Amino acid sequence: MAKIIDGKAIANALQDRLKEQASYFAMRFGRKPKLVVIMVGEDPASAVYVRNKIRACENVGINSESYRLPETTEQSELESLIEKLNKDETADGILIQLPLPSRLDAKKLIPLIDPKKDVDGFSAENLGALVLDDKRALYSCTPLGIIQLILSTGIDLTGKHAVVVGRSNEVGKPVALMLLQHNATVTICHSKTVDLGAVTRTADVLVVAVGREKLITGDMVKEGAVVIDVGINRDANGKLCGDVDFDSVAEKCSFITPVPGGVGPMTIAMLMTNTMKAAKRNVQ
Ligand code: NDP
Question: Residue 222's pLDDT is what?
């Protein structure tokens, strides 16, 4: 039976370490680091994510400022807000909570955020910096958290076969690049992959970021693999679940993340880490 990777505990420990950095920052520079969160509309899931991010800021000692804008907000108003925040020297990190209402175009807004304040790491500059192994850049939070969870098992990624299922710009592609930075041999699968199970069965480390309940079952996993389940889905009873069929996979693998309590808390902890990093750069 697999050991559970306790993302919540690892994230809490990380936040505790950040508290010291945030308090040193406040003492040295006479203000706390600051994260600005922009949310448009009333999407309930987004509201929960924003609340969790603000709570984490309070816990770590980071100032948070949130803009809860109405559904009717225009693209041009968001452009002006981003422009204003880019100039605000006390705004160290800026993030736009996604998804935005369909009228608005996030692809045109994210490039407007100063890359040094892009704590989600979604901009072309920051993604490009990841390709170039530039460690000063802000990398995207969920992939950073996934790598921490994998390393927490004690596995040495060098030469291991890591399979990533999903190729989004936010999770699949950046996590594949990070696994490569750790010298894993990386394969990326997606909706057009033929015989997904044949590929996933060869994985020493399997990262699944798809958004399909129970896509990965026990017969698709190698004995002793490390399995990271990024997916957030609701089952028929409305209960949160991942992309991995936990019971059958946990019987075969060595380590597995739960949903909830795995990748989710780490994403927020890495957002706090990125905000701290952006704040330090901002005052240099
Ligand atoms: P996207 O929808 O952007 O990407 C999903 C990917 O899965 C695509 O690359 C798609 O392939 C691939 N895919 C779809 N169906 C299959 C299939 N049957 N077999 C193999 N691959 C398939 O999702 P995200 O990457 O943004 O998110 C993935 C999941 O992770 C979601 O459930 C999301 O909610 C969750 N998530 C969780 C976070 C957390 O903090 N815990 C943070 C971010 C996301 P193709 O490109 O060919 O369409």
Answer: 98
